[in-house]
Write a structure and sequence with these properties.
Blueprint (H helix, E strand, L loop, with lengths): L3 E2 L2 E2 L2 E5 L2 H13 L9 H7 L2 H15 L6 E5 L3 H15 L36
Parallel strand pairs: 3-4
Antiparallel strand pairs: 1-2
Length: 129
């Protein structure tokens, strides 16, 4: 198995974002108050140095991508898809036995009997979404 020695499985992932998606994400961090906490001065500096970072990435791959411990590049423009693809890759890389699951059924709920919902002054949060 790739990346396995002494019962250790080493999987290295590089999440690749293209230029347009990086721009979209950073612009969202600038303009969306819900995302502004994510924006750091380093984000802006690294954005202006795309090709310097690309060269550094290429050098890292040349120096550390080996047959025993390769890098797996995951296109991450779509966050949900990249997460699912990486999870699937991890699970397909680790040997495991499928555990037989018992059949589960929901039990019947008890009858209300004499229960009456109380008229309490509950304070619900606004349902914005």
């Amino acid at each position: 198995m790739v990346g396995k020695a002494n019962n250790i499985i080493l999987l290295k992932y590089w999440l690749e974002v293209d230029m347009d998606e990086q721009t979209r994400r950073l612009e969202a961090r600038i303009t969306d108050p819900r995302k502004q906490w994510k924006l750091s001065p380093m984000d802006l500096k690294s954005y202006s140095r795309w090709y310097d970072y690309s060269r550094a990435r290429d050098e890292m791959f040349k120096a550390t991508d080996t047959e025993w411990a390769p890098w797996f590049v995951a296109r991450s423009d779509d966050k949900k898809r990249v997460r699912l693809n990486i999870i699937k890759h991890i699970l397909s890389s680790i040997p495991y036995e499928v555990v037989k699951q018992p059949k589960i059924t929901l039990p019947k709920r008890q009858k209300a009997g004499d229960y009456q919902e109380a008229d309490l002054p509950l304070k619900y949060i606004p349902e914005v979404y």
